[in-house]
Amino acid sequence: MASNIDSPSDHQDIFPVTIEDEMKRSYLDYAMSVIVSRALPDVRDGLKPVHRRILYAMKESGYDWNRAYRKSARVVGDVMGQYHPHGDSAIYDAMVRMAQDFSMRLPLIDGQGNFGSMDGDPPAAMRYTEARLQRVASEALLEDIDRDTVDFQDNYDESTKEPTVLPARYPNLLVNGAGGIAVGMATNIPPHNLGEVLDGCCAYVDDPEISIDELNQIITGPDFPTGGIILGRTTIRDAYHTGRGSIVMRGRAEIQEVRKDKMAVVVTEVPYQVNKARMLEKIAEIVRDKTIDGITDIRDESDRQGVRVVIELRRDVEPEVVLNQLYRFSPLQTSFGANMLALNSGRPELLDLKSIISAFVAFREEVITRRTIYELGKARDRAHVLVGLAIAVANIDEIIRLIRAASDPVIAREQLMEKAWPARDVETLIKLIDEPGRSVDENGNYYLSEVQARAILELRLQRLTGLERDKIAGELGEIAAQIRYYLEILASREKLMGILREELVEMKTKYATPRRTEILDGVFGYDDEDLIQREEMVVTVSHGGYIKRVPLSTYRAQRRGGKGRSGMATRDEDFVSQIFVCNTHTPVLFFSSFGMVYKMKVYRLPPGTPTSRGKALINLLPLKEGETISTMMPLPEDEETWSDMYVMFATSTGGIRRNKLSDFTHVMSNGKIAMKLEDDSHLIGVRTCTEHEDIMLATARGKCIRFAVSAVRVFSGRTSTGVRGISLAEGDKVISMAIINHMDADSETRDQYMRYASAKRRSDNADEGDFDPTALETSLSQEVLDAMEADEQFILSISQDGLGKRSSSYEYRVTSRGGKGIGNLDLSRAGDRTTEVIGVFPIDQTDHIMLVTDAGKLIRCPVHDVRIAGRSTRGVKLFDVASDEKIVSVSRLADDGEEDEVESETDLTAEGENGTESLETAGDRPEQE
User: Fold this and answer.
1) What domains sit in the chain, N to C, each tagged with a CATH number?
2) pTM assigned to the model
3) How many alpha carbons fall within 13 Å on the CB side of residue 913?
């Protein structure tokens, strides 16, 4: 029985291979095919194979810019049938993009019909649209392709040839950019302005040693077809130097009044590659999510004239702030990740700006050289024929006799080639042509070639006339001049580069357009605060953790003893616990009961009215369950000054700790550990200070202590409990910490100065004739008096029952840290009413103070109404506090340089639904939030 097993000879081309090796080889082949033949553009013409094939197929089919439009389906069919063996949709998509003026800075295809939109609308089917080449594609990318300027290769079925690259006359890779994803690599090159790029190429031709920075002065940055704005030049410089960079793009928008008192943000240009419709959807989403507040309507009014998106705003919002929030939270501002990867000499390479330009210039040099060689060959071929005709004309009688005597054309041709013909005047041209084996012999004779003999036999009799003989001679002269010109080009690189430069200038003259994208300097990292007007704000915090900011101008000054006005609408057991005045740009540190610190600018705090409650801190800061904000500290705006400053912590149990303020420069959004607290302690104050200041701690029972900042060492950590600042009596607690000027004077000098200052104040307040001038006499020199007066501060002390007084800082002597302190405020005359000290801090004569009660009432009064008294006195009434109320917070309002109106001491209050407030504002009180 015959065997069914095939003999080895039947499978000589089959051999075993491991699956790992086969997978590696196959995947590498696939990867290289994608990289070289699909995804990455060539640095020379800036095109991928599919784009190159589309343009070449349209050129070959005659779909030029000055011809009629042709159906896109026909173009796709030509490309797919001859050059690109892929799906028709891939070819059509690539063709569509080359026709979109919002995708290409210099469109290469002139499309007729629906070719898509910036809203992401798809183009019409290829059977409905028509296309032809743009003039720039025909004259700048495909010009001279039939002059042996580039190499050709077999197409996929070897039925025809296709170019490996187009002889581009401008750096299309930079002008139109490119994007693509290969295997393990990707490219994303931004488009540029044609005029700038060609100027950069000319600069490189003039000076090949030009630096990238010098090129960057000419090619200032990407120029996107959709316009827009680029923020900053640093990222552009990085991309040009390294090939990589993230370029921040921003749409062009402006604030316009669309109706009376109705403002809107009008967007006229969107960032490159941003889907306008999706951008509007995103804006609507962030408005719905309350990420941006103040937008009432969004309309797309774009038409054929251009983009116009109208975003209407509420009347009570700052349009600039909303615009900046749109930049931050919507695609109106985005980034372009430049990754300038392209095929250079057939290999993928990350290129910088100069490398791209140098590769293009080298390519153009090669193209012009090959074109010149081709033209030289054509000219020599024509000259070769003309030499034969010129010799025939010069020897016309002998030529005619030879032809008449020949029996047939073949013999005539052979006899013409065999005979030696006198070269005569044609000898110079023959030497110029310089054909191998076709020179004049030593006797001045020339032998005709077969081509020349055929041309003579085909010579028409009319060419033998005198006029025609002159034309042959004239053409010979022109050809000779052309040959000399081509030889000069090939012999001189300088002349060749001059031609290259001239062609670049010609391209700029024909096709360059003004820059569309604006580049702004020094605005990278733009923040909301840069658009927010500087304004003094009263920040109010309630015991229940509600915070708000109200413009300081809302509160009008009253004289001491007034009834006040409502400062916050309180509910249940909530009451106002703290206020401070600062600028909208002031950074504020929030110290929590858990020893954490959070950071926020004042303008980010919720705005409110004098009677509104505000917003809960737990909704602003990432507070944990049970965590509350115990202290807030405004900081200097300039962080460069923080390095020379310190931050002092004080706890209710008398502890104190000093850290560098720079320890709190970088506070993340989720907070930072600030201080470790004991179980029965909480932070009562955090203040900035320097080495040349003193600390004053005051207790609820009228004690205080003053010692130098330098007495507290600088702690390097943020988790320690610190050292003892004051020793407290049982039941007492620290209620405030103040930073005051350091005092160096001895006790005798202080006593003399205080007697002098007291007498001087009485002199200033006394009527003429009621004061004895001799009381001002003192042994201190005027220089010492002036210096002590400059350093003198007045300490304001206020108790919960509304009494307060000012005392000179010289009355508080400097002692050692950790003592029991001295008396500050006499609480013994409070009667049956239990009261404690609520605030002790330095104050200026021109300042105002703001007092808040636990019922939410608030009063603002000038400091000059508070008389200066001794350290241990009781003081005067500052706030007419009801028997069931007490002051819970007091704040210093620094002089703003403006004259405040002062209400009459007459009772100008009215009972509102949220408490007592001034009649002057009761009629137009804002609605409660």
Assistant:
1) 27-196 (3.90.199.10), 252-331 (3.30.1360.40), 361-505 (1.10.268.10), 533-922 (2.120.10.90)
2) 0.64
3) 6
